[in-house]
Amino acid sequence: MEHGSFGDESVATFSLNEEDHTLANAVRFTLNQDPRVRFCGYSIPHPSDARVNVKVQTTGDPAKEVLKDACQDLMQMCEHIRNTFDKTVGELKASEAVKKKNSHSQEKAMDIDSQESDSESEESESN
Amino acid sequence: MGLKQEEILLSNNSINSNVGEIPIDKQKLAAPIKSALDKYQLVPEFLKVRGLVKQHLDSFNYFVNTGIKKIVCANDMIVSDVDPVFSSGLKMYAAPILVNIEYTQGSRGVKMRAEKNDLVIGRMPIMLRSCCCVLYGKDEAELARLGECPLDPGGYFIIKGTDKVMLIQEQLSKNRIIIDADKKGNINASVTSSSEATKSKTVIQMEKEKIYLLLNQFVKKIPIMVVMKAMGMESDQEVVQMLGRDPRYSALLLPSIEECAGINIYTQEQALQFLEAKLKRSMYADRASEKEGRALSILRVVFLANVPVRSDNFRPKCLYVAVMLRRMMDAILNKDAMDDKAKQVLRCHRSYLFKNSRSLRKHKRLCGEQASGAIWQLISLLFEDLFKTTITEVKRHIDTVLSKPSRSSALDPSLFLRTKEIITGGLERTLSTGNFDIKCFRMHRKGMTQVLARLSFIGTLGYMTKIQPQFEKSRKVSGPRALQPSQCYSLGVEDLELLSGEELHTPNSFLVILNGLILGKHRRPQHFAVALRKLRRAGKVGEFVSVFVNEKQLNKSVVVVYVGVRILVILKHICLRVVGMHIFWKLFDVELYLCADQLCVYIASDGGRVCRPLVIADKGISRIKEHHMKELLDGVRSFDDFLRHGLIEYLDVNEENNALIALYEGEATPDTTHIEIEPFTILGVCAGLIPYPHHNQSPRNTYQCAMGKQAMGNIAYNQLNRMDTLLYLLVHPQRPLLTTRTIELNATVAVMSYSGYDIEDAIVMNKSSLDRGFGRCIVMKRYSGVIQKYDNGASDRILRPQRTGVGSEKMQILDDDGIAAPGEIIRPDDVYINKQSPVITRGSRITSAEPLPDKVALSSDRNENPCIKILIRHTRRPEVGDKFSSRHGQKGVCGTIIQQEDFPFSERGICPDLIMDPHGFPSRMTVGKMIELLGGKAGVSCGRFHYGSAFGEPSGHADKVEAISETLIKHGFSYNGKDFLYSGSAAYALSFSLCPFLGS
Amino acid sequence: MAGQEEERGDTKKKFSIFDLPDVPMGQLPDHLQLHRTRVLCNNDAPIHTESVQYSGAYATVGVDNSLRFDHFRNNFRVEVVRLTEEDMEFDMVGIDAAIANAFRRILIAELPTMAIEKVLIANNTSVVQDEVLAHRLGLIPIGVDPRHFEYLSENDQPNERNTIVFKLHVSCKRGSPRITVKSDELKWLPNGSELVKESTPSDSASKPETYTSFSCSQETIPEFAKNPIAPKYPDIIIAKLGPGQEIELEAHAVKGKGKTHAKWSPVATAWYRMFPEVVLLEEVEDDLAEELKSKCPVDVFDIEDLGKG
C-alpha cells in the first residue's frame, strides 16, 4: 500500500503489513546508502498493529523504484552473506574435520535469506 | 491476659524456619564470625517456645479453660420471681458448651431437687490450634496426614467457611496514673481502673486553679476536697500533709480548700449529702447501696476501683488520690514536666499502652468504663452478655410457666435453654462481622475481626500479628504516614531513647507500686530492684516480671505516703502474689516493674505488656558464652534453660528505660546491661522482608509492609487441597537471590527509559519471558450451591444433564450426576450444577474466559443440607494492567508487553524480563532497592544467595555494597552494576542501564 | 558506523582505524572518522551510538558515504570462532549493525520450529495442574527439522505433514517412592493420535475417528525413517509423581514461529555486539603496568617489552 502525495512520485510512504523493525530497519539502511535518496525513515504507528510505515523522499527518481532497488540490494547482500557464511563454515568443517553436523546454523542462514526474499516480494506486490 | 507480643518482634525468623532456610543460614552465618558470639540460633529456639501467634492461642485457651467458667459461675443462679429456685452449674466447655443444671422446686413446702447434666446451651467457635482444637499438639506428620499445613500458625477462627482473625487491640494500660492535658490546657490526671468486679475511669481535673473530680456517676464536677471529706479526711491539714510539706503544693491546693469551705462542707456527712445530690439517676437501683447512701457506695466501688476498700477503710483511696494530686502538681510546677507535656503524654502512651480501644478520643468517656483487650476479654464480654440474655430469657419463660394457675406437668427448665440459639448465633454473628455490640457493657465497636487474607503466607502472618492502633492516624503526634512510636518494635523503627542510659542518683524514697496499686515505700529502690531482678533471674519470680526504677526527677521533697509495710514484707508479698498468680493463671504472664519518674518503683505483673527477651550483660560482657551456644546447637540446652539460668531475661518497655541495651556485642560498654539477641528481630513480619530497609526512605518501607501482604506465592503446604473462596498461587515461585525471607519471583530488570510505556511507574515486560512462564499464576475461586429443603417437605434436586435438545450446549461440561466434571474447560454461560428447585429450574452460571473446575466437593452445611462446592481454577499470565511490585514499596502496573527481539540486550546477550523507569528512583529515595539490584546481579554471577536484612551490615551478616561491587568486578561487570545495552529494535547501542536481578 | 560486527562472539583482534575496508579515498577529519566508526564508551553514557547511514552525510567534505555493493562483496568476510552442536560464535567483518540486528531478530522470532501446541489430557492426578503441565510440555524443544512440515492452519485437519503426536503415560505405583517424569518419557506416535473422539457415531466397520487423520505413518517418510522424532534433550523434568498418581496424555506438536510464542523460538538467545577496542591514552610502564594488568578480571591487558618500542 502506498499513500502520500499522488502528484509527486519522488515522495512516498509505504505501509508494510505484518512487518516490523526486522525488515524496516534493514531497508532503511540500504535506502540511506543509495545516493538517490534525499530522506528516508520508518515508524511503527502503533505497537499493537503489525505494520510499518516507510517514508522515502528521493532527489527525483520515483520513490517506488528506489525502494525496489533497495530491497534488491538487501537481497543481494543477504545472498552474499549467506554464501560467504556457508563457505566459511564449510571450510572450517573440512579443515578441522569437525564430524558433528552443523545443520543448525546453516539452516538458520538459509532461512534468513528465504525470509528476506519473502518479505521483499510481498512488499513489491503491495507496491 | 497473657498477650505476649514479643513474638511479633521476633517474627521474621519463623518464616525463615518455615521456608526452610535455617540450615543454610546457620552454616553461612555461623561460620565467618568469630569475634562476636553468634546468638542467631536463639531466635528460632525462642520461637519454638513462644510461637508467633501464641498470644492468640494462650488468650483463647485461657478463656475456654478459665474465663468461661468464671462467667457462668458468676451468673449461676436463676431465681424465679414467682416461686422456685433454680441453679445451674457448669461442667465442661468444648465446641458445644455444656452445662449441668440442678433445679430445686418448692411445692407445697416440699423441696424437690432434679439434675440434668451436659445440656448444650450453644456452640462456641474454636480457635485453630487452641487446646480445644483437634489439631492441638499434633506433630508435623500427623498434621500432614490430616491434610493440614504444618506451618499454619493457627490462632484464627473459621466462621461460615471464612477465616477470621481477631486483631490485637492496643489499649491504655489499666490502673496507671496518666497525666494529660486536654484541649483547654487543663491538666488531667486520669486512671482507668479495672478490677474483676468493676471497670471505671476516674479523672481529676484542674480547672481555673481548682481541682475537681470527674466521674461518670456524678452529674457535675465535684470539688476534690469534698471527695476527700466524704472519704473521711475531714481535716484539711491531713490532706495537705499527704501532698507533702512543700508550701508550693499547699498553695496549689488552697483554692480547692477554699471552695470547699465556701459551700459549707466540713464533715463527712455533709460531703456525702452533697454528693448524693449530684448523683445521676440510675435505673438500676441497688438495694445494698440504698441503705448506706449511694454516694458512699459509688466512692467505695466505682471511684478508683482498682484500690480495694477493706472494712470501710478509705485510707488507701485517700492516699491514691493524694498521689494523683501530687503528680498533677508536679506537672504544673515542674517546668520540665510542663514543657515535656506532649512528650510525656506520648511516653505515657508508649509505655502504658497496649491493646484495646480503636478510637480513644471518640469513646474516651465510654472507654473508661469498659475494659477489654485481649481476645479472651472480648469474647468473654460477648459471652457474658449472651449468657445473661439467655438466662433472662429462660427466667422469663419459667416465670410465664409458673405464673400459670394450673400446671399440668412438672417444669423442665432445660427445655428453655436452647430455645433461641442466642449464644451460638450471637458468637457467630459477632465474630464474622467484627461488630462488637455488647448491650450490657455499652460497647459498640466495629472491625474487631478481619478476614484472614490468604493471599500469601506473609500476609497471613501479618494479619495475625497486626495490632489495632489506639489512636486514629490523624492524631497530631503522628502524621498520616508516620510510624506510631508505640509500634516501634513491630514496624521497625528503633527507639533511640531506649539506648540512652539514665544516671543513677540516690533518691530519697520511692513508692513501690505493683500493677498500679501502691504497696508501700522503700528508701533504697536500687537495692529493691536489684533484689527483685536477682529473684527473677533465679527463676523465683515469674519470668515476665519487670522492675523499673525511674529516678530522673530529683525532687528534694519527699512524698509522704506511708503504708507502713516493711520492705521484706513487701518483697515477700510481691513474690507470693507474683508466683501465686503465675501458677494460678498460667496465662497471666506475670510481670513486675519499678518506675520512679515520680519517685516510684513500679512493679508490673499484669498482662499485655510488650516484652522482649534480651541477653543479660555483666559490665558489658555478655553472659552467653560460646559453650552455651554450642550446647544449644547440640540440643542440650533449650531456650527455657537460658531463661532459667539467668542468661536471658524479658524486659518490658518500662524496664527497658532502666537498661542500656547494646545492639551488637561489639558496641557494649561497661555500662551496658543488656545485649540484643539479634538486632533484626526488632522488625516485624512484613518489614523483615525488605532488603536493606535502612537505606530506604521510611514511608517506602511502610508501604512495602502493606504491599507485602498482597504478594502472591505459596500459602501453605496444603494449598491445593483448600477450598478458599479466592486463592492466588504463583505457578513458579522462587526464592529471592537477595535473601531476607519469603518466596517470590526473581526477574532480570533493566532500569531505563524505554518505549514511553513505562512512565508513571509502569513496567515494560518481555513477552518471551511471559511465554516461558514468568509471573504465571493460578486463580482459584469457589462457588457453592446448597440443596435446600423447604418447609413443605420439598427440596432441590440435581438432575442428569440434557445431552440433546434445547439448552444441551450449556451443559457440556456436566457429568452424569449433574455436577461439572473437573478438568473440563468452561465456556461463558455454562451450567455447572444442574439444580432444580421446586418452583423453577435453574443452574448457576459464570462468565469468564477459559477457567476450569479444579475440584468438586460435596458436604453438608449446618442444617444438614447437602452442599456442593466447586473450585474454579484459572491460570493466567501477566497482562497489561497487572500490578507488579518490588520489595521496596515500588509498585507499578504493566504498561505494555514487548517481544523479546524488540527488547534491549546486553553484551552478554542477557535480555531483561522487565524494564522499570529510572524516574521512579530519585523521588522515592529507595536506595535499598538499588543495592538489592546490585546484590542480585552479584548473586547470579557468583552463584550464591546474598543476604540483606536490616542491621546486618554492622554485624557482618549482610553483604555490603563494597563486597558486592567486588564480586561484580570479578565476574567482569562494572562495579556500579551498569551494563552496556543494545537496542533490540533499531540497530544502535543504548545508554548504560542497570541490568540486574531482583525479586518482584 | 562500526566497521566490524561480531555475532555471538567475544574474541579480540588487533585493529586500527586505517585498516577499515570502507574508508573512502577522501579522508575524513579524525574526529568525524571516529564518530563514524566507533561508539565511544564514556563514563556516564556511550556516545555516537547511532550509526551514520545517510549517503550524503559527508558530502561537504567530499566523502561519499554510500554503499557500493562490489566493495561490500569484496570486503565482507565471516570468521567462525566457535562451533559446537548447540553453540556458535562468529565474527562478521564489514557489515552494518542494521543488517546484523535483522539476523538476530530473525533468529529469535521468525524461524519456524516444531513445538507442542495442543495437549489432550486423558488423566492427570499429579499435583501439576493441567494447564501448567501443558505449558511445560510446550517449552520442550523437539529434535526435528521443521522444513519437513507445513503450517497447520485453522481449517486444516491435523495430518502427517503438519502434526507430530507424542504420548506420555506414566504412573507411580502405590507404595513405591515418588518418581520424576522426564522428557524421554514422551513417546512419538508415528501413526497419529490414539485417542478416539467421543462424539463420533460408532460405526463398527470404519476405523474409529481420532484427533488426527494421518494418511500414512510418519515412519514411512524417508526423513524420519532413520531419525525417529524425539525431544531434543531426554532429561528435562516435566513433573514429579507421588505414589498412586498418574499422567496420561497426548501432545500434538505443530509448526510455528517465535513471534507467536517463545516456545517456537529456535534459539535460547541470539545476540550481536560490537567489536571492543581498548585504547590506552598514554604509555603505562613498570609497576603501573603490572597493576593495570592485575586489575582486569578478564585479562584484557598484557605487558610488552618496551625495548621494541
TrEMBL record, chain A:
Cellular location(s): Nucleus
Acidic residues biased stretches: 113-127
Question: What Pfam families does the record point to?
Answer: RNA_pol_L_2
Query: Got a GO cellular component term for this one?
Result: RNA polymerase I complex
UniProt feature, compositional bias: Basic and acidic residues:
96-111
- What keyword terms does UniProt attach to this protein? DNA-directed RNA polymerase, Nucleus, Transcription
Instruction: List each copy of the DNA-directed RNA polymerase RBP11-like dimerisation domain by range.
Output: 12-83
Q: Which GO molecular-function terms appear in the entry? A: DNA binding; DNA-directed RNA polymerase activity; protein dimerization activity
HAMAP family reported in the protein's UniProt record:
RNApol_arch_Rpo11
Similarity comment text for this entry: Belongs to the archaeal Rpo11/eukaryotic RPB11/RPC19 RNA polymerase subunit family.
Could you identify this protein by its name? DNA-directed RNA polymerases I and III subunit RPAC2
User: Which source organism?
Assistant: Corchorus olitorius
Automatic annotation (TrEMBL), chain B:
Q: What does the record list as GO biological process?
A: DNA-templated transcription
The family database entries (Pfam families) matched by this protein are listed as: RNA_pol_Rpb2_1 (PF04563), RNA_pol_Rpb2_2 (PF04561), RNA_pol_Rpb2_4 (PF04566), RNA_pol_Rpb2_5 (PF04567), RNA_pol_Rpb2_6 (PF00562)
Q: Does the keyword RNA-binding apply?
A: no
Molecular function in Gene Ontology = DNA binding; DNA-directed RNA polymerase activity; metal ion binding; ribonucleoside binding
- The EC number of this protein is 2.7.7.6
Q: For the RNA polymerase Rpb2 domain, which residue ranges apply?
A: 174-341, 512-553, 639-669
Q: Which InterPro entries match?
A: DNA-dir_RNA_pol_su2 (IPR015712), DNA-dir_RNAP_su2_dom (IPR007120), DNA-dir_RNAP_su2_hyb_sf (IPR037033), RNA_pol_bsu_CS (IPR007121), RNA_pol_bsu_protrusion (IPR007644), RNA_pol_Rpb2_2 (IPR007642), RNA_pol_Rpb2_2_sf (IPR037034), RNA_pol_Rpb2_4 (IPR007646)
Q: Which ranges carry the DNA-directed RNA polymerase subunit 2 hybrid-binding domain?
A: 686-985
Q: Kindly indicate where the leader peptide sits in this chain.
A: none
Which Gene3D superfamilies does this chain map to? 2.40.50.150, 3.90.1070.20, 3.90.1100.10, DNA-directed RNA polymerase, subunit 2, domain 6, RNA polymerase Rpb2, domain 2
Which keywords does UniProt give here?
DNA-directed RNA polymerase, Metal-binding, Nucleotidyltransferase, Transcription, Transferase
Q: Which family does it belong to?
A: Belongs to the RNA polymerase beta chain family.
Name assigned to this protein: DNA-directed RNA polymerase subunit beta
Q: Which organism is it from?
A: Corchorus olitorius
UniProtKB/TrEMBL annotation, chain C:
Q: Which residues form the DNA-directed RNA polymerase RpoA/D/Rpb3-type domain?
A: 87-309
Instruction: Offer a single GO CC term for the protein.
Output: RNA polymerase I complex
Q: Where in the cell is it found?
A: Nucleus
SUPFAM superfamilies xref list: Insert subdomain of RNA polymerase alpha subunit (SSF56553), RBP11-like subunits of RNA polymerase (SSF55257)
Gene Ontology MF, one: DNA-directed RNA polymerase activity
This protein's source sits in the domain of life called Eukaryota
Chief location of this protein within or outside the cell: nucleus
Print the keywords alphabetically: DNA-directed RNA polymerase, Nucleus, Transcription
Cross-referenced CDD domains = RNAP_I_II_AC40
Q: Which GO terms describe its biological process?
A: DNA-templated transcription
A Pfam family per the record: RNA_pol_A_bac
PROSITE patterns associated with the record? RNA_POL_D_30KD (PS00446)
Annotated SMART domains: RPOLD
Indicate yes or no for the key word Lipoprotein.
Answer: no
Query: PANTHER family given for it?
Result: DNA-DIRECTED RNA POLYMERASE (PTHR11800), DNA-DIRECTED RNA POLYMERASES I AND III SUBUNIT RPAC1 (PTHR11800:SF13)
Protein name per the record: DNA-directed RNA polymerases I and III subunit RPAC1
Q: Which organism is it from?
A: Corchorus olitorius
The record lists the lineage as: Eukaryota, Viridiplantae, Streptophyta, Embryophyta, Tracheophyta
